[in-house]
Design goal:
alpha+beta, 5 strands, 99 residues, five-stranded antiparallel β-sheet, single chain, 32% strand
Length: 99
Amino acid sequence: MTLKDQVLYQVKELETEHHHEDQPTAYDWINNALDIQYIINEKKEYLGARILVTFGGPNIWVNTQYDQVEGYWGTDQETWTYKDILGIDEACRDLFECC
């Protein structure tokens, strides 16, 4: 699977609506994250988050500030936008503000 394929797979996972009772929430999705980096301004106000979903070949991050999935593997890079239908950015904001 190419880097582009893996990034597009993550985009599809983020945008897929599940029409049944087992639909994951944004918090379920975040719970499986490997790392979260919060993006803030000089006033320490929340701007977004970068969420690590895979690493080690390739590294794939979900960037909620720009609604992008970013993939990195060696010198290769792929970036694609996504629709935040789960409300991941809002959930990250809630987590940031509660701490």
